[in-house]
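On clarity, I found the account of how folds are encoded harder to follow than it need be. What matters is that the chain and its backbone geometry are given together, residue for residue. The format is easy to grasp once an entry is in front of the reader. For illustration, here is how one protein appears when written out as sequence plus structure tokens.
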Amino acid sequence: MNEWVIYTLHLDHYATGEGRLIQVLVTVAVSEAEARQRFWTTFWPGDKGAEDYFGPVLVLTRGLDRERLGHWLTGAFIDSLERTLPYNGVFTLSWQFNRS
């Protein structure tokens, strides 16, 4: 029997002229492979090139990565997320900006 596990997936990409892209997925899955696949289908559905291009900088952590999430979310929000993940099963954040 497979056991559900919480995974945090985080992509932080910067390119001159393109700006910065931050994508976060916190999900419940039975394997790292399933969690990775869920990331690509959530943020880049049907775009195989995105996985090839961004894959090397995608960070996967088993569990709720409170330190990494703390860069973008308050502690109270992370606490709430931790309590509700077994019921909701997914949290997404996507943010792209260019300072130029």
About this structure: The CA atoms of residues 27 and 90 lie 4 Å apart.
